[in-house]
Every structure is written in C-alpha cells, then in structure tokens.
Amino acid sequence: MSERLSAGLLCIAVLGAVGCSQPPPRPSAPPAPATPPAQIAPWGLDLAARDSSVKPGDDFYGYADGHWLDTHQIPPDRTRWGSFDELGERSHDQVRSIVEALPDGAPAGSNGQKVGDYYRSYLDTEAIERLGLTPAQAALDAIGDARTHKQLARLMGRADLALEAPLRVGINLDQKDPDRYAVTITQSGLGLPDRDYYLKGDTVYANLRTQYLAHITRLLALAGDHDAAREAHAVLEIETRIAKLHWPAAKRRERDLTWNPRTLAELDQLAPRFSWNLLLSSEGVDAQAQFVVRELNAVQDLAQLFLKIPVDDWRAYFRYHYLADHAEVLPKAFDEERFDFYERTLRGQQAQKDRWKRAVDALDEDVGEAVGELYVQRYFPPASRQQVLALVENLRASYAAHIEQLPWMTPETRQVALEKLAAFHPKIGYPERWRDYSGLSIVRGDAFGNLTRARVFEWQRQVRRLKEPTDRGEWGMTPQTINAYYNPTFNEVVFPAAILQPPFFDPGADPAVNYGGIGAVIGHEMGHGFDDQGAKSDARGVLHVWWQQADTEAFRKRVDRLAAQYDEFVVLPGLNVNGRLTLGENIGDLGGLSVAYDAYHRSLNGAAPPVLDGLTGDQRFFLSYAQIWRSLYREQQLRSQVLSNPHSPPKFRVNGVVRNVDAWYAAFAVQPRDKLYLPADARVRIW
Predict the structure, then answer these.
(1) For 583-611, what is each residue's pLDDT tens digit?
(2) Is 95 part of any domain?
C-alpha cells in the first residue's frame, strides 16, 4: 500500500548534482539545493496527535493517535476519515484543478477533450434530468423482452449492459503462466457486501435486509414498475439463494483452490443445461481453449440455480441491478435513492459527496490514465521517483538479511525465496507507457452514454489482449490513487505517485519517520510475496509449490498463531476480527514493519540517531507507523469491513503488529502487566 525513504537517498542527490569523483565546483557555481523542511513540523511527526494519558503498552494506537481521534470528526460525506482519506481529498482537489483548467475547445479526440467533456457531462445534471430514463430504455427493453434462460444468458454477456449476475466472466493473468491472459469465471450476484448480510440472524442484519427490500421496491417504482413490491421480494429471494452457495471470503483467498481450468466441453459437463456457449460468445471469449473457474462447486451450483429460477424473477433482478448500477447518471431521484440505501443506511454516510468529487472518481474509473498523465506532470517530480526506488533497494537488502537468517527455513526453500526477492520488480509513481484512449468516444452532454462506452471500450481492450503476450508495464491503479499493491503473477510491487506524500513519505522528514511510514508500507507490499498466498508463486510468478514440506509446516504453525491472535480482537459487540480472512494483510503488516525497522538502522550506517523532542529514533519509528493508520470509522462501514475486507481495522493493524516486535517493547519499556504484552515465546516471528 505504499513506499518508503532510503538510506542511499542523500548520496544519490549528491551524485546527481556534482558526482562523487569530480573536482570541487568553482566558486561561481550555484550551491546544491538544500533539503526542504519537513511538511509536518518540526521533523515529520504529528506530535500533537498523541495522548500521553494512555500507556503505550496498553493501547499503542490510542497513545500515538488518541488526541487526533478525540478532536477530529468524520466529514458528513465520508464513512471513514484518516491519513488515506486526507490524501484522497488532496488528490481530488489536485485533479479538479487540472481538469477544470482544460480548455473547453480541446481538439476533438484528444485526451484533453475526452477528460474535459466526460467531467463536464457528468456535472451537467440538467441534461441528465431532461433525458430521464431515455438513455437506459434500450437496455431495460432488452431485459424486458427476454423470455427464456438462453436469452438471459446472452444478455449477461453483453458489455454494454454490464449486468450484475450470479456468474461473472473476467480476464486476468494466468496464475500458472504469467506470459498469457486467462478468461475466469467467478461467483457474483449479490447487492449487499457479503453473504453474511443475507445469512446472519442478528437483528442488525435482519433490519438491513428489510431496508434493502424497501429500497429495491422504491427504485423499481421510480422506473414505473407497477408490481415493484412483488419484484423486490423476488430479487431478495434470488440473492439469498445465491448467498447460500457463495464461498466465504476467507476461502476465496486460497489461490490454489481458485485455479480450476476447464474446457468448454468440461463446463458443459459441470452444469449441462446452462448455456455456456451463449454467455461466453456474447462476452466475445468463446474461442478460448480453456477457462479458469475460481470457486468450482459454487460456480457449478450457481449455474444450476440460474435455471431453476423463473425468467420473470430474473428480469426483475436484472432490471433492479441495471438501474442501481447506473443511478449516478440517471435523474436525481434514482441517484438519491441509491445513495440513501448504499451509503447512508448500509455504510452510515450522512451526506452525498459533492457532484464534482464523484465526477473525479468516475474519471479515475473510466479514463484514469489520461488524467494520471496530467497529474504526474504537475505533482510528481522525477527526483521523488528516484528517491523511492533507492528506498525499495534498501528494503530489499533488509528482506534478504531476514531470509538468510530464518531459523525455520531449509536451505532449498531459502534459495528460491532469495531468488524471488531478487526478481521483485518495483513500479514507482506512474507507468512507463500511458494507455491509449483513441478508440474511446466521449460526447459532451451524454453522461450515460460516456459511462456505457467506457465500459465497452475497456472490455474490448481486455478481449483483444487474449491474443497478445501479457503487458508487464501495465498498472492496476492510476497515479492519483492513494494506495499500493503487490501483484503475485508478475512478482511486482506498485506504488502510485499520490501516496508518496506526508505522512507516508517526505524527503525533508526524519529518516525514522519515513521508514516507519512509507518504509513499513513498502515492506508490507513486498511482504505479500511471502504471505500465505503470495508465497504460493515463485520468482517468475508461477503458481506452484516450491517449499519443502518442513518449511510449509513451520510456516503454517506461525501463521496459525497469528490468525488466532487476531481472532481475539473485538471490533463491535458480537463481532471479532476474522483472523483467516485478514491473514495475508496481517502477515504483510508484521513482516513489513519488522523489515522496515532493520532497514532504518541499516540506513544509519552505525551512527546513533539523535533524540528529537525527547523521542529516540526507535520511538519515532513506531509512532510514525501508528500515525499512518489513524482513522475514524462509522459503525456501519466498520461492520462491512470486518465481514468482507481482508484488512484488519486500523487499530489492530497497529496494536496487533507491534506486540509481536521485540524492539517495540524496548522502545517504550513495555512490561508484563501491560495489556498488549506478550511473553517472548508467544510473539509471532515469520519473516
């Protein structure tokens, strides 16, 4: 999820200015630029955020962030608020300033024209209101005209409809062959965040189902359906039956379980009466030799369920989801109805985001790299990219030292692990080659059509790639995104430009702050290559077993203990962290922080770090880590995250990690009587 600052940074800056072997500059030469001051005074850490009344050993998250948590509020148009969200606001403002400065008469077909006209059309709510349901009518008629399951299967594959359905066809990297793309078939079809929302009997979920039913009824009534209440019951019944067949989120993480190649003939054997050929030909992918089925028995059961449910009920289901998925570019009544349930009721958001913010989000989704190219020109100087690349190499060296010293790993597995680490490819800031949008038509005043054409354009781009080698230069996030990721099939770590800002990264900050911030986040992403799922791929990204059996058993014992620790964390009454669902991210956090700590000390080259404002270097390092995760959550959003998201809530991304790191105990004099204290033999050490 992020990047960090490196030990060799100063040397690189000096080399870039004058060169280490060059003679001294003449007196008339301009002086080398001074390091800018930290953006968060005085040296990069928010000292006022702390709550000194909290003992670090009882609640380190509260100690590091307590005053900030007590004095901040979640904005009405947000479901959470923290470091990532603050940067997200900044990114929105930056993109808005770029887009609104684009000339109104940019050359037709240029990226400037596409970005500007998409944005202006999205903001033109008068035109959207005037058109009413007319732009959606052809799709609604197509759904209404379907009389057989075969016709419905064909509709499910139409890119211009992009229908929510119990089965979803996608195009992804082939986990067994990183040089090719594969067509995947996966479970889908739910309107609520996770299967548990349909199956749990607790009052909170029962109430949400009642509110969901009322919402479906209102949305279908807005579209003129005279029997909206009956149709809404049919939709909820369909989704409940789908939910019963879905794999739980924790099981879906298991990469070896979700690689099940099947030919078209084998798909016909899997669910004999389902019209696989119609679905896949409508998607334009039927010529493939094989398809990868992810949740094998769930996909089989969902295909059979599809045939059992009457066509009339499916028409109501598709009609509702089509309207809900396009509500943002339909008249205000549809947009507000969708917001009222999905944001206000389900996630606790009190007010709709300003339309311009939503326009920026839509731009990012549909023409994101066209915007990103403009973004990096203005906000991401080349020097930042080089500094972060240097940071990555320092983290790589620290990971290597950890792997070489692991007491539980056999020499055979250690050698492959080091080869994988050496093969890690970092992508920093922005892609080397920007996406070509020349085939996408954006029309001024046609927000609905722009959304539809963008979806069709993207799907057709993906289908064309089935005949081509994989594009190792492609990015899965835009440069203006506040996030980062590890891609196991390319064995790469990717850090967009927008996250390389304070509090994560600041060239003027104290090194301990940068290593505790972006360093831990970079280490986290690199660690995904060695978590319980990333470790299933080798240096080339090929999914296969490369561990010795003894290593597998030793690794499993450690991660089982970590999962058990997180299972004990109570988030809300009756709701605990799911240690299995969050295991990969928790491994990434623990490994990332541990390796970043060693990289920080490596960067000191034997020198003792100064004490700043009474804080040692180690204390600043751990405080920086805790402060990047500070966040406030609305209860509804927190519940959704715990049930469906592989990341632990922020409090436990801090407290759950530091209690397993020996250096934290020494830095804050944590004692056995403290609440977070773990005996040395109970602390989990993996990487």
Answers:
(1) 999 999 999 999 999 999 999 989 999 99
(2) no
Structure-token match 């949740």, residue found? 295
Which CATH number is 660's domain given? Answer: 3.40.390.10
CATH of the domain at 252: 1.10.1380.10
Domain of 223 in residue numbering reads as: 137-330
Rg (CA), the chain: 26
Between helix 296-308 and helix 228-245 the angle, nearest 10°, is 150
- The 10s digit of each residue's pLDDT in 488-514 is 999 999 999 999 999 999 988 999 999
Read off the tokens for 41: 């005074």
Residues in contact with 128: Cβ distance below 8 Å, sequence separation at least 6, in sequence order: 329, 330, 331, 332, 447, 448
For strand 291-293 and strand 177-187, is the pairing parallel, antiparallel, or unpaired?
parallel
Instruction: Please state the pTM of the whole predicted model.
Output: 0.91
Q: Does one domain contain both 52 and 172? A: no
> Half-sphere exposure of residue 260, counting CA atoms within 13 Å on the CB side?
17
Query: CA–CA separation, 628 vs 83, rounded Å?
Result: 6
Q: Which residues pair with 182 in a beta bridge?
A: 172
What is the structure's pLDDT at 27?
A: 34
Q: Give a yes or no: residue 513 inside a domain.
A: yes
Which are the contacts of 368, defined by CB distance < 8 A and separation ≥ 6?
478, 480
Residue 140 makes CB contacts below 8 A (sequence gap 6+) with 133, 223, 319, 322, 323
Whether pLDDT at 181 is above 60: yes
Token pair for residue 219?
Answer: 């949305």
| pLDDT at site 2 | 34
Q: Strand 575-576 to strand 570-572: parallel, antiparallel, or no bridges (unpaired)? A: antiparallel
Contact between 7 and 605 under an 8 Å Cβ cutoff? The reply is yes
Domain-located, residue 128: no
Residue 6 confidence (pLDDT): 29
Q: Token pair of 619, please?
A: 């204390």
